[in-house]
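Try this one yourself first.
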């Protein structure tokens, strides 16, 4: 008897979708246990739903059962939209039964970072400021995903207002790293990464302003892509720093991220940051040959790297050298002009403070108190300086592609440091004060976002993929980046590396009996203590 692995079976089903569209509707996943279902990838789920061997309803039920047991340990979900998800699943299953499919994401549950608006379901940005905020409209990306058949399973935790790379400052308490529950996930898309690593959802959306998709992806051992600036609409997403904000897909495999991106990308005329783009089959682009790709390893991104991360990344580079034309340059990647997005974050939060008062978690409360009541002698950016900074940022983005001369892509460590412990991070952040002469210190210069932040300023696509583990069993990430709109090359190199390794197949061990270490936050940050809304 011929035996197929689950992945081989999924590929076989993917090639027979058209042939099976007219077959009787006979779901046949009964031999799968719930643990198997919750470990399926987006790509595998899509193939099975289209082949009518899996119903969305059964999948959603399995995920909800696992969330009920495991989420109290990882604190990934803020709001579980169980009733809504089951109602969506019923509708989509009925459509599938008749052979009607809205797209490759038909019937697939996804989680949304809780700064992405959902009509009728609160969107909090993990802040006491917005703990009761219920939007009246879906964000543009939510509308697009629903139209493609995706199911919104719930809203997941984040670093308050997406301002930070640790992921531990949240009104709902810190999300926990599924690989070690006393460690941080990275931020700000903490819940997105934790929910994926813990098998609480097959795919999730994150946002990235300084590394908020890639840092938690690296530290939680999943895949996260920050696409080209403006490729995915950010309308209806609570801003961190709008002109540097990106929205992107996160999942457990590169092919899942490629599949999701194809349904997320598209011009939004009502989003001032959106840019016109040509539709791309990213799954097809992901499978392009990589043998001719030239790699750059700019030395500055390898400075002060943790030894264990350095070892893992060097091993990954050896694999990539064998798959490509090799490393053709170690020269620095151009650092860009002296420009940033001065004033955007300050303006947005000043208006919030006028309306709600300074009602933030620490250390954000301290930062905004200093912003509203600056120490004597503090220098502020003038309107002229702010305009100049934005102009230089725009020019940097226009010029960066021309600096990919002796190489096609850059490969660097996603982070220079390992994930820290939650209690130590909370204590450090509670003590932290901005450097002398600076009122605003949104991202640490030597933190989790050290290597990721430049790519947000450049606005170019960058992905993090798992490339190893520390001696203590914490994941390590590898980052690949390319010029604007070359997501296809980024995905292709990431996929080739994934196919040559097995890091993406590893899962943390989490059961109903897994103990949850205590969090000491009584003197470091107000404890939200809320449970996810049912």
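Now uncover the answer:
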């Amino acid at each position: 008897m011929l035996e197929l692995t689950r992945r081989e079976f999924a590929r076989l089903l993917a090639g027979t979708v058209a042939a099976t569209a007219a077959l009787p509707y006979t779901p046949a996943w009964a031999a799968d246990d719930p643990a198997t279902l919750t470990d399926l990838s987006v790509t595998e789920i899509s193939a099975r739903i289209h082949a009518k061997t899996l119903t969305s309803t059964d999948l959603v039920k399995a995920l909800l059962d696992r969330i009920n047991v495991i989420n109290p340990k990882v604190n990934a979900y803020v709001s579980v939209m169980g009733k809504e998800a089951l109602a969506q699943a019923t509708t989509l299953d009925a459509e599938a039964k008749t052979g009607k499919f809205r797209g490759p994401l038909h019937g697939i549950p996804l989680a949304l970072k809780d700064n992405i608006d959902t009509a009728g379901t609160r969107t909090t940005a993990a802040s006491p400021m917005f703990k009761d905020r219920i939007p009246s409209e879906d964000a543009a990306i939510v509308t697009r995903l629903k139209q493609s058949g995706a199911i919104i399973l719930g809203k997941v935790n984040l670093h308050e207002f997406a301002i930070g790379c640790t992921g531990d400052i949240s009104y709902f308490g810190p999300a926990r790293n599924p690989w070690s529950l006393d460690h941080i996930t990275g931020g700000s898309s903490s819940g997105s990464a934790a929910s994926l690593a813990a098998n609480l959802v097959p795919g999730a959306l994150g946002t990235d302003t300084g590394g908020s998709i890639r840092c938690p992806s690296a530290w939680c051992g999943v895949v996260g892509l920050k696409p080209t600036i403006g490729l995915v609409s950010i309308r209806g997403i609570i801003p961190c720093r709008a002109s540097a904000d990106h929205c992107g897909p996160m999942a457990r495999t590169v092919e899942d991220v490629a599949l999701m991106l194809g349904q997320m990308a598209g011009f939004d005329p009502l989003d001032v940051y959106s840019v016109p783009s040509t539709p791309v089959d990213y799954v097809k682009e992901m499978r392009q040959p990589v043998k001719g790709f030239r790699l750059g390893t700019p030395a500055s991104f390898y400075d002060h790297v943790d030894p264990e991360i350095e070892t893992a990344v060097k091993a990954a580079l050896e694999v990539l050298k064998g798959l490509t034309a090799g490393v053709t340059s170690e020269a620095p990647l151009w650092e860009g002009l002296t420009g940033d997005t001065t004033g955007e974050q300050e303006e947005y939060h000043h208006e919030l403070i006028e309306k709600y008062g300074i009602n933030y978690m620490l250390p954000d409360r301290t930062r905004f108190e200093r912003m509203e009541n600056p120490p004597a002698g503090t220098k502020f950016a003038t309107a002229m300086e702010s305009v100049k900074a934005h102009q230089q940022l725009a020019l940097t983005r226009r010029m960066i592609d021309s600096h990919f001369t002796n190489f096609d892509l850059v490969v660097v460590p996603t982070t220079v440091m390992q994930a820290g412990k939650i209690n130590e991070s909370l204590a450090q952040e509670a003590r932290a004060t901005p450097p002398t002469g600076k009122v605003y210190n949104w991202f640490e210069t030597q933190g989790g976002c050290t290597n990721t932040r430049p790519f947000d300023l450049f606005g170019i696509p960058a992905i993090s993929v798992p490339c190893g583990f520390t001696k203590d069993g914490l994941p390590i990430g590898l980052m690949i980046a390319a010029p604007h709109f070359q997501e296809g090359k980024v995905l292709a190199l990431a996929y080739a590396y994934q196919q040559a390794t097995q890091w993406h197949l590893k899962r943390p061990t989490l059961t109903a009996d897994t103990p949850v270490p205590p969090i000491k936050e009584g003197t470091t940050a107000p404890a939200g203590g809320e449970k996810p809304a049912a």
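Discussion: Residues 17-338+390-505 form a domain with the Amidase signature (AS) enzymes fold (CATH 3.90.1300.10). The first strand starts at residue 77 and ends at 80.
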